[in-house]
Design goal:
The chain is of the alpha/beta class and 381 residues long. The protein contains 13 helices and 13 strands. The protein folds into 2 domains: 134 residues, Rossmann fold (3-Layer(aba) Sandwich); 222 residues, Glycerate kinase, domain 2. Strand 11, helix 11 and strand 12 form a beta-alpha-beta unit. It is globular, with a radius of gyration of 21 Å. Keywords: Kinase, Transferase.
Amino acid sequence: MKILICPDSFKDALPAADAARAIARGARRTGGDIEALECPLADGGEGSLDALLAATGAERRSAHVHDALGRPTRADWGWHAESRTAYVELAEASGLQQLTPDERTALHSTTFGVGELIREALDSGAERLLLTLGGSATNDGGAGMLAALGARLRDAEGHDLTPGGAALIDLAELDLKDLDPRLAGLRVETAVDVDNPLLGERGASAVFGPQKGATADDVSRLDAALARLADLAATQLGEDHRDLPGAGAAGGMGFAAKAFLGAELRPGIELVMAQAGVEALMADADLVITGEGQLDGQSLAGKTPIGVARLARRYGVPVVVLAGRLAPGWQAGFDEGVTTAFALADGPMTLDEALERCAELLADRTESLLRLWVATADHRA
């Protein structure tokens, strides 16, 4: 029996590779004739770089950059010399997880560090860039990234804007003449884990701003500021991408990647699965086990378990989802190829206990479901 094990990370508990290892351990405890193939995945959020490096054998590199608050930090990125491909995960430089709850400020956080990572890639001779956008602490529409790559964003008096999304309300001039000329020869693919537009009630500010410290008043201010950026970009570039699905990813970085880098926006899980060669593995599998911290109705917007299930459905392979929590709307996964889903907790427990025991719970739940699977298979035989 061939089992393809392809979870995402379990937030605050296990990276995807460790989750896959725990599931495989539980599978092997059944003692049956089981071949467990570990293929950790990601959907564009935290852990995407690790998944891409594991899938491609690319070299892990590190660079001195600035975090979302402008503080010096180090961030990893990936380099595949043979294909001249760079892998950049936004969360490495401008990630929400790097900030304490008290530090989160959607008004003033910046994507400058992401631009610095792209510059590192260009310095290495990159001809292709895979940019993943999940897990951001930012809501600046990619303004910081543009500044790091040579653009100037000025107010009506000709002063450079201060970092952060709130300052864009004063944007009067978008000067792109000094934007790094090497970008013209760079093919950019951008992995997004949501399909939200840039603006409005489903936009970057309204949906994701509160997670980054934005109050209700802040959301209105940020939405107006991003609209200002979109207006000037449309006038200057002759194209308007504010309504593009995924434009609202990472506080508007999806919009910036498309408008200023000419990026192709793709669901992150599809991009990562393509890099990992999951389709070929899927065609040879008898069962797929995937999962992440939470499965809910929003998972259909591009989260890993649903992306995996949609691919598995094409090959008629059953899919089991293991989740830390099954939240409202999780049953929608049944229409997307999910065969069954299980929450991990084996009894009442605190969140801290669930996080600490995540690997143990994954292994136990996997062993239980596979023992049932094998027993019913033997009965059918």
